[in-house]
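Quick question, first post here. What does this chain look like in 3D?
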Amino acid sequence: MKKIVLGVAIILASLFSLAAKAEVEKFIQLGGDNIRPIFRLKFTPPANWEANAEGTKQFGLPVYAPKGQGFHEAPAIIYIRVSYNENKRPVSQFIEVSQDRWKKAVPDTQVTKVSNEKRDNGQGEFLVYQIRNPSHPAQGYEMLAYGEDKDKDGNTYFVMISITAKSQKALEDAEKTYRAALRTH
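> Answer (accepted):
Ran it through. C-alpha cells below.
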C-alpha cells in the first residue's frame, strides 16, 4: 500500500511541476544587421488540429488549423502572439492598447466581452472577447483570449490566443475546441 501511495504522490508531483513549467520560450532571429527577439508560447493544439506551416510562414507567428485542411481552406484557424511585458503593465492595459490599435486600422470593428476562461495550470484566467470585422473579411469573425505567462527566468509576457473564422457559424462550431485549448495553457 505504501508503494501505491508513494507512486501516486510522485505522479501528482510530476503533474504539478509540469503545470508550473515555463510556458514562453525565447529565441533570437538574425536577419541582415538586425537581431530580434522572438517569443513563443509552448502550445499544444486542440485534438484534431495541427501546426500549419503555410500560415506560420506567411504571418511569422504560430498558426494552427484542423488536421488535413490547408490554411486558406480551413473554416477557422488559431494564431498566437506573445509580447514581452517590459513595463510590467496590467493585462487590462495591454487589451485596451491592442483593441484601440485594431479599431484605428479597422474602424467598423465590433468588440464584445464574453465569458473568461479559467486555466488548468492555476495561472490567471484568459479574458476573452468576440470580434466582428465587417470590412476585414480575412479576420471577419474572431475570438481573442488575452492572458499572461512567464518564461523559465520569471519574465512576464502577454499572450493573445486568437481564433479567426470565415463565418459566425464556423466560429461557433470551433469555440468549444478553442476554449478547451485555452484551459490547458
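The beta strands are 24-31, 34-41, 49-51, 63-66, 76-84, 110-113, 127-132, 141-150, 156-165.
Confidence is low (pLDDT under 50) at residues 1-22.
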